[in-house]
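Q&A log
Question type: sequence-to-structure
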Amino acid sequence: MTGLALQPLLPWPLALAVGLLLVGAAVAGLVTRPQRRLQWALRVATAGLVAIGLLGPGVAGGDAQQAGRLVNVWFVADTTSSSVARDYRGDQPRLEGYRDDVAKIARLMPGARFSVITFDSSARTEMPLTTDTTALRTAMQTMRQELTTYSTGSSVSAAREELGRSLEQSRERYPERARVVFYLGDGEQTNGQAPAPMDLAELVDGGAVLGYGTSEGGPMEQRSSSGGDEGDIETDDGQVAISSIDEAQLRAIADQLGVPYVSRNDGGDISPALQQARPSEVVEDALGTSPGRVSLVWVLATLAALLMLLDVTVLARDLARLRGVRS
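Response status: OK
Response body:
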């Protein structure tokens, strides 16, 4: 239900005392200096707005997901050459889907700690657990696929050891925090070997396997150390190489992690995927909803600034008139 909610910027007694002091001083000036009634009226209004602002008014209503300090989140991203196959939302690289969804998830999980692990021929932690969403955004924007010349085929479970080690450390250091894993990839296994199982369900409290790509597949751009445009990757017989999603493999990984599989190749609203991504009671509690709130302090601050500007304008006008009389 929508209504006014107060969240003082200072402790209640101090906020009230400062507000009353400001308003009282302005009213006193208005009473004792009637010759400058306009200026002091502006100051009374300004002081009133500041006093109200100190009480932190806001409009309450709706629900906002709160991750708070109860959740550690890992984004495990496939950065093999297939991550730039151009079949996400038409003809965009799949990496764009990764970036879009990570940004959406981070916005819906305020206060959570985030980590990024990437994998291709090997796995590495690109960003350790942090609440710094700017660092997360930078990590995703600078994420690139592996160098084509170094590609030795991909394994969908290449990140198993790196992720497992990080989850174990989190369980030991932060046993009170839920451990949420989002695996982002296409499920292609191209190294000629059967993938090792991602059997980490006992360490994972929630999350999802997010799938990108189409069954028709898309071409993959080459990447060299020089950064030049070398066209698309080709097969040994000179044909353009095509990468296709393997949803059966992704579903198997989801089962091994104990989380649902969600196709994300069309992008759009991430909320339905997050609803499926919370099967555990501990994650349900950690991501529980609480009343949302939109602060009105900035509105009051803007109005107060405008009144102060008007006050300065009136003062400047009076000073100009005074100089004119003296001359």
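Response note: The chain has nine helices and 13 strands.
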